[in-house]
């Protein structure tokens, strides 16, 4: 299988913008720890997102709401230590940027200084534009996130597809344009109709990276634990499983436990 952009030594926000211009699709995955981030980076992924989905897959919370800035910084720094090539983006968690620009600035600066990440991601449309503008003016690259924004799940009350009616679709177009004008270098769009994502991608000059938003986006993002089949309880149709690691891991652990109990582990060559 071809590895994308093996020749580029370090992916930057500039590279990501250029990839849209040259019509090369952007591959993005989440990671939350050193070991997996190292593997994903070696595989040639373009962007590693230290997503606040860590709240679900790392900490076992039902939503992304509870994760804290300190916890995101811990995950972000672990990932940055592993990565040599990919662009690393860290999510600003719920409650650390929505109330005012000063808070957003403090949170984003902490992420940039304490993790060594290359950019932050935050959720929200038009109403976040002035905050994004301030962060960008301060030299902090920002990735937007619109559509189904999981930090607002209690407001939505459902994980159903967003913007399937005209009013919401029109608002989403305004959101994408406002985020571009505010200086975002890319936008994630989650769980919207594929035809609308196609329109959005064609209307903005920065990359639109989709999750559950169809094939016409400039790139795709998935949660690593979903696509590797580690986490199998969450099965929306937009997830493609590229491995079934859950059964591999359970099988290996069962074999290890059986070997310990039958005293076949350790054997002579495994002793000092
Ligand atoms: O936190 C996350 O994993 C995300 C992706 C779903 C885009 O924001």
Question: What features would you describe in this structure?
Answer:
This protein is an alpha/beta fold. The protein folds into 2 domains: 13-241, Alpha-Beta Barrel (TIM Barrel), CATH 3.20.20; 245-272. The protein is 42% helix and 14% strand. It has 11 helices and 8 strands. The chain has helices at residues 13-21, 34-43, 54-57, 69-82, 101-115, 129-137, 153-156, 166-182, 194-203, 224-227, 245-261, and strands spanning 26-30, 47-50, 87-91, 119-123, 142-147, 186-190, 208-211, 219-222. It has an 8-stranded parallel β-barrel, surrounded by 7 helices. The longest helix has 17 residues, at 166-182. It starts with 12 loop residues before the first helix and ends in an 11-residue tail after the last helix. Residues 30, 49, 51-53, 91, 145, 188, 211, 221, 223 line the site of 3-methyl-2-oxobutanoic acid (KIV).
